[in-house]
Amino acid sequence: MEAGQQLKLSLLHAGHIRVGTNWNFDGVISPFARLYLITDGDAWVIHQHQKFQLKPGFLYLIPSFTLSRYGCETEMEQYYLTFLEDTDTGQSVFNQLTFCYETPARPVDPHLFRRLLDINPEASLQNIDPKVYDNRANLLSFNQPFSTKPDARLIETQAILTQLLSRFMLPDQQHTAGISQTVNQYRTVLAFIHAHLQEKLTVGELAGLLGMHVDYFSRQFLAVLGVRPIDYIINKRMERAQLLMTTTDLSLQDIAEQVGISDIYYFSRLFKRRFGVPPARYRKQILLNK
């Protein structure tokens, strides 16, 4: 991340649980990240085209919007937490920095999890099935802008989340840091996209923010961010749509319009292309598992 950029981590769920063969889920894609500390037993998760055998004494990270699969043949005991991450430009921290997904826990980490549970006793999951807790009530109850939690608890919670997330950052960030310095030029553009997803956005309008010619801007955007401007906008709109689908009662038409797409059929095609399932089926799965 470039200097001065703000990272906000918002806790959704946290707890300590022993699971068995019922911890078996496929096709999980969530708008939040997951972090585990295994304390006993073993299980596995698959994501990023890798299979991670979960071992006691290790921390595991699954970034947001990541297709994943879980399985346990016997029993496994874990601390868990889920969280939303956001920056002032709308750029995911997982797209800006390089992370590993498995790392040995430090001696202090179990104490950090216990402290997190002490100050957030209401955050434990009542059902371990992701299709149940990826729902609007769970997300909204812990992600209100004006929380009733005392400020000290919010600050301490954010500090613990940041500390645990930092365990997964690779020590050599020189390449990513260089990219971030270049991305700094595009902070105005990224922040503008993030704040105006519900409106009509054109590449010409974005190029004008930096005083660039459209063709030059498009080439530079692709070179710096690895994706064309229009594809970046679509990805952000689909991620916003998934979050709205799981955190509100808005109709699919209303959600499509709130992310700047008035044609519900075009919206459905884009959503299925991004997440592998049509939005109507995704919403039905949420409602059936509430």
TrEMBL record:
Matching Pfam families: HTH_18
| PROSITE patterns membership | HTH_ARAC_FAMILY_1, HTH_ARAC_FAMILY_2
The record's section on InterPro entries has: Homeodomain-like_sf, HTH-like, HTH_AraC, HTH_AraC-typ_CS, Tscrpt_reg_AraC-type_HTH
Coiled coil, from the record? none
Keywords (alphabetical) are:
DNA-binding, Transcription, Transcription regulation
MF terms per GO, please? DNA-binding transcription factor activity; sequence-specific DNA binding
Sequence ranges assigned to domain HTH araC/xylS-type in this UniProt record: 187-285
Matches recorded under PANTHER family: ARAC-FAMILY TRANSCRIPTIONAL REGULATOR, HTH-TYPE TRANSCRIPTIONAL REGULATOR EXSA
Q: What is this protein called?
A: AraC family transcriptional regulator
What organism does the record attribute this protein to?
Arsenicibacter rosenii
Traced from the root, the source organism's taxonomic lineage reads:
Bacteria, Pseudomonadati, Bacteroidota, Cytophagia, Cytophagales
